[in-house]
Amino acid sequence: MRIYTRTGDEGKTSVVGGRVDKDDLRVEAYGTTDEVNAFVGEAIARMDTKKHADMIRDLTEIQHELFDAGGDLAQAGKKRQYRVTAAMVSRLEEWIDRYDAETPEIQRFILPGGNEVSAALHVCRVLTRRAERRVVSLTKAQETNDEVRRYLNRLSDFFFVLARVANVRDNVGDVEYKRGGQVFR
Question: What is the pTM of this model?
C-alpha cells in the first residue's frame, strides 16, 4: 500500500460522509485534535518510565481517546455511533482530582514552565484549548458530538494539573505570575 494517494492534491479531503475542503471547520477541528495527540506523544517521550508510569499510562489512554475524538469530529452526513462519551469526561474529572491531591494549593496564576515534562504538558494544554475553540466553531455551524467539546475542556484542565504534578515529582516549583496579586484563596 502506498502512503500517498494524490486525492488531496486539489485541496479536498475525505470525511465520513463525503469530501470537504481541507480548511473546512470539521477538518480544522479534528486536525487540531490530532496536533494535541502528537504533542502528548512528545510529552510521554520526555517522561521517566518509573517516576511517571501512572502519567504515561493515563496519557496513552488519552491518545487513543483523542483519536476517537478525531473520528467523531470527522463525521459529516453519514452517522455512526460516537465514541467520546460523558463517562470519559467524568473519568477525566476523577483523574484531575487524584493528581491535584499531589500539588500544593494555587495562590497565583501559573506560567508555563518548570521542568521539561511540565513545559511539554503546558503545550498540550494550550493546544487543547485551541482544539476546543475549533470544536466550538464547528458546533455552531454543523452537527457533531457535543461530548468532544466537553472532553477537550476537561482535558486542558487535566494537562494543567499534570504539568504541576511533573514539577512536584522533580521538586521544581511552579513558575508563578508575580505581577498580579494572590488570586486564589
Answer: 0.93
